[in-house]
Design goal:
Elements: H1 3-12, H2 15-42, H3 46-56, H4 62-82, H5 86-103, H6 115-124, H7 126-140, H8 147-155
Helix pairs in contact: 2-3, 2-4, 2-7, 3-4, 4-5, 5-7
Length: 157
């Protein structure tokens, strides 16, 4: 066993595996949003909960916004899944999650927490984790196993 390589992997990771990590996160996150958006758009009563959440958060035009947000999740998630215009799609979904965090998720947090406990609860919110993943995907790009990578190879020759 090559201990030096094992220690190097434990401390630095492996750039050989990075493309597979990007693929796993991009496809998982994209599918989650595409399925979530599809359920809201194409299942009877799917936008009802979104509408009620938007009304409670006092978002203007809640009926229209319920369909808009659901459409953004479906289309953006589909684009992220296949890696087509993935960075712009991640940016739009990132904004969607920032708005969801500010208008809805923060209101679920207990009041009067110390800063470390507040930060613990805040970082536990799924929307915050999605924001972090979208930032990572925007910075890393969609990876070699994406439509964007193939397009870039053809367009930038």
């Amino acid at each position: 066993m090559d201990w030096k390589r094992l220690v190097q992997f434990a401390l630095l990771g492996s750039s050989d595996l990075e493309q597979y990590a990007i693929l796993l996160v991009r496809v998982s996150l994209g599918l989650f949003f595409a399925i979530s958006g599809a359920n809201k758009l194409f299942v009877a009563g799917g936008t009802k909960l979104v509408y009620e959440t938007l009304v409670k958060a006092k978002v203007p035009f809640p009926h229209l916004m319920a369909y808009f947000v659901s459409g953004v999740e479906f289309v953006g998630g589909s684009m992220v899944t296949v890696g087509f215009l993935a960075s712009p799609a991640c940016a739009v979904l990132l904004i969607d999650m920032l708005v969801a965090t500010l208008t809805s998720a923060l209101s679920t947090m207990p009041k009067g927490l110390s800063l470390p406990n507040w930060l613990d609860d805040f970082l536990y919110l799924p929307e915050v984790l999605y924001v972090l993943f979208f930032i990572w995907l925007i910075c890393s790009g969609p990876g070699k196993f994406s439509v964007d990578y193939s397009l870039a190879g053809r367009l930038l020759r």
